Amino acid sequence: MKLFKCQSCGHLLYFENTRCESCGHELGYLAEAMTISALEPDGDVFKPLAAPERAVRHCDNAQYGACNWMVDADDTEPLCLACRYNHTIPDLSVPLNLELWQRLELAKHYLFYSLRRLRLPLVDRTDDPEHGLAFDFLADTPDRATPKVMTGHDNGLITIALAEADDAERERRRTQMHEPYRSLLGHFRHEVGHYFWDVLIRDGGRLEDCRAVFGDDTQDYAAALEAYYQDGPPADWQDHYISRYASTHPWEDWAETWAHYLHIVDTLEMARAFGIKVQPRISGDETMTSVIELDPYDTADMADIMEAWLPLTFAMNSLNRAMGNPDLYPFVLSPAVVAKLGFVHDVVRGQSPSGGKR
Question: In this predicted structure, what is the pLDDT of residue 284?
Fold first, then answer.
């Protein structure tokens, strides 16, 4: 994620800001330009100072405080390039649902920033009714006999349980599932990983390459999940997988690794925006030193990304511990996991594992 600045006064802005705290200008995100812009009213529409030749209006979901992305004034679609992928939203007449949905939308918009930044193919259900990308945000029913909503993916349709936006409930589930990390953005990144397995691996001619790295995905998925929940992960799972859950099945291994790839590149971009330099004063170990100068979204070699990432995680975790909090990035990146991240990186960049363009 980048930092932004107000075109009117130069004040620092964040991705989710809707008004400049310094000069008071209304703000909106221009998805095509990937920037936050100060807005000048121009009749019924706005003139963005970042692109004064354009006329834009708010996404319809702005009325709910759920979106700050803009739509071209002459676009017949009422929703922005992120919100038009919504298939189902919760009943907003229920007061708590609105607040939880707003949190879901913020995480989803962060996701779409990354997907568009990586120039990944995005097809909605209008263009592909059977396999296009779409989101259902579903609330549990009051009836305790009804099964709770399960977060998951099915042929492009991603379901996110509204309850995951409740911090206390999400923490309860994190503890129950023995997870070191659980976040809304993490859910979105994981589930969209399944969608891109379909698009980039299954339909992209990379099945055999992927199986050579992640294993045989033809093994029975339901049986693999049952075995995991009954017996847990293998004792040496940290040598081969990014998380315990990644050990269940090659599909989950891919999705977990995909999610971490997005964690890494987006966090490194923010570190670069702040000009962060990691250089421990009491260590002569050069592997713990890094000046975050690379653009992780446009870096060819995954080794360069990892060279910046590992010192940054050491610093971030140390800062969190100093505040009495858990590690910000509580994961071990074994050589096998780094190789899997490299495979994801090559796939995202449209490369074969050997580094050549397909």
Answer: 64
